[in-house]
Amino acid sequence: MKVKYFGTDGMRGRANRVPMLPGMIMQVAMAMGILFRRAGHRNRVVIGKDTRLSGYMLENALVAGFTAAGIDVFLLGPVPTPAVAMLCRSLRADIGVMISASHNQFYDNGIKLFGPDGYKLSGEVEKEIEKCIEGDMLSHLAGQYDIGRAKRVEGDIYRYIEFAKRTMPRNVTLEGMRIVVDCANGAVYKAAPLALVELGAEVIPINDKPDGMNINKNCGSTHPESLMKKVAEVGADVGIALDGDGDRVLMVDERGSIVDGDQLMAVIADSWKSNGRLKGSGIVATVMSNLGLERFLINRGLKLARTGVGDRSVVAYMRAHGFNVGGEKSGHIVLSDFTTTGDGLISALQILGCLKEEGNSMSVLCHKFEPVPQLLRNVCLSKGHAIDNQEIIKVMNSARKELGKRGRILIRPSGTEPVIRVMAEGDDYGVLEKIVDRVIHAISY
Fold this sequence. Notes:
Layout: E1 6-7, E2 10-14, H1 22-36, E3 44-49, H2 55-68, E4 72-78, H3 81-90, E5 95-99, E6 108-114, H4 123-134, E7 150-152, H5 156-165, E8 178-182, H6 191-198, E9 202-206, H7 225-234, E10 238-242, E11 249-252, E12 258-259, H8 261-274, E13 282-286, H9 291-299, E14 303-307, H10 311-321, E15 325-327, E16 333-335, H11 344-358, H12 362-365, E17 374-380, H13 390-403, E18 407-413, E19 419-426, H14 429-444
Parallel strand pairs: 3-4, 3-5, 4-7, 8-9, 8-10, 13-14, 13-15
Antiparallel strand pairs: 1-2, 2-6, 5-6, 10-11, 11-12, 15-16, 17-19, 18-19
């Protein structure tokens, strides 16, 4: 059975349009409640959201669905996605839901679903949810005496802040550091500045005044230009760019240069190897991470295990093979010693801890390798266009042979757009352009 509504990270789409309609979301909540309900147990769900205007609408739809299924609802209000995952375990909830479209603009929204262990639900469970929706749910709803209750939970954002702070070494503070933090007008607008202040930093927050429609608007990890400018303007030691729901982070050094997820993972891997904390003899990243990261790790006696795109693929590999550091170039970094999903604030704190312990500037600490030139192009496709025909395979094999060990090339269908992504990397950018042109020609004709 192919899922109809779920994508690579829960459900997502234009707010108040299919599938992000209140009625549809209510049905998803009913189905989840029925599937996760345990007899003889007062079942509960925790629901968080980012700062989108449509969050109010979807929150109420979820409450209606879960309570109809006999599930008690704890409403957390605006909190980061990793806070929902953490509080799902801390509050002994059966289900966790985050209402967010992550780094998308305000007019989109979505839901991310977590099990009682704080991990995102698998694709198989999502199929079961859709199967339940298409079946007879009415006969499985709660009786009149068993309808769930809903209440707002105050103060749990501070539990998350304390949790994040405890991931720092006990003897390390951020005193003497000037930090600019871009909150993306999103879910971290309270948590991130407070955590940094309480650790001793001088904090200059920007984009921390959400109005329901300015989340991710020319700010945050997808648009770090305003952060780069502010770091230079105030002479900050470091800048932190989070995204709308707080599960991604990019950073800016004191010179105003961007530090992406690959460099951040290299810093953490190197540090954790030195103090004996790194597990799995390396890290996990996706096929999109730069070849320079792989070369750096090999030179440190470590390996880079690659997965398909998406944090769920990364986490699944980490759990199956015993790694505790993984993530994506986009800044979605998972540190499984602390979290079950990406956490932008905690990832940033690990970098800041290294910065204080080593006494280097950000530009020195976070320049672990020279990125290999990378070229990414999209090819628009008509529905049903195949990418595994013999001509494309022939061209791809020729490209791989030409690049040899000096580069990589891959093609993959986008999970969110009707395009095929062609990515190549290698030491000679001119060679990459010629190879990618040949591959695109083969795909297009």
